[in-house]
Design a protein that fits this description.
9 helices, 8-stranded mixed beta sheet, alpha/beta
Length: 255
């Protein structure tokens, strides 16, 4: 199981590592630090249970950037929602939510509760929770982000092979420039969604005023959850993303 693979990877990893918090069921949310210096980036994966293919992608990103990173620091969080992944694997393959039925990526304080698909009752997807940051996992990610104060963040999801970069920011040139660089190395188009809210990307853009991207991996022809047999193709399209972000031209003016 992917959670076991993350734990084994954590035990063997020789670089700096730690646990940013615990899930509702007490599972560790692991973190791996690679590189040093500016810019500082957080890359988080598998905040939705059924999207655990992104956790496998994270392990490949960590292996590569730990050995080959040329500039900057990246904190990799392979699985922000371990309970949700377990539910997906053992109970409901379409589950996105955490153990309390909250969709963690609509539980952030960024126009919380205003998304078109938001729900007020717990379930496997789209329930916003009782209030922003009501869940252990979102609190842990919030507190870790505020402690690190990154220059940018990347959130990995599935599926669709597209990149979301916009959340009502007034001066978007800087953010769009980085988004275009990531689009170039992945081949994924940039898209804008004004019907969603309360995501980690949204919170980073609105509250921290930093560029933040959501990258959707895996073609729409694939079914949830995307199997590991598709990992190599996904990684091939995304292997340059950590470098595109840490070596982006935007840092020449903003750091």
């Amino acid at each position: 199981m992917v959670l076991d693979e993350i734990n084994k990877f954590y035990e063997k990893f020789e670089g700096e590592k730690g646990i940013i918090g615990l899930s509702e069921k007490g599972k560790p949310i692991t973190c791996f630090k690679c590189g040093n210096g500016k810019p500082v980036v957080i890359m988080q994966y598998s905040i939705h249970g059924r999207e655990y293919i992104t956790a496998y992608l994270a392990l490949k990103h960590i292996e590569d950037f730990y050995l080959n990173g040329r500039k900057g620091t990246i904190y990799f969080l392979p699985c922000v929602n371990p309970d949700g992944v377990e539910i997906c694997l053992k109970e409901n393959p379409l589950n996105k939510a955490n153990a309390r039925g909250v969709d963690l990526n609509v539980n952030f304080d960024a126009r919380w509760g205003t998304g078109e698909q938001n729900r007020r009752k717990k379930g496997y997807a789209n329930y916003i929770g009782k209030y922003p940051f009501s869940e252990r996992e979102t609190k842990a990610l919030r507190d870790f982000t505020l402690d690190v104060m990154p220059d940018a963040t990347i959130s990995y999801h599935s599926k669709g092979e597209e990149i979301y970069w916009y959340f009502y920011q007034k001066h978007a040139d800087r953010d769009l420039k980085m988004a275009k660089e990531v689009s170039f190395v992945t081949g994924y188009p940039l898209v804008t969604a004004t019907s969603s809210a309360g995501g980690y990307k949204d919170w980073c853009i609105e509250k921290l005023k930093i560029p933040s991207l959501t990258i959707e991996v895996g073609g729409n022809e694939l079914s949830h959850p995307i199997g590991k047999e598709h990992l190599d193709k996904i990684y091939e399209k995304n292997k340059k993303v950590p470098y595109a972000v840490t070596e982006s031209v935007i840092w020449k003016k903003n750091l």
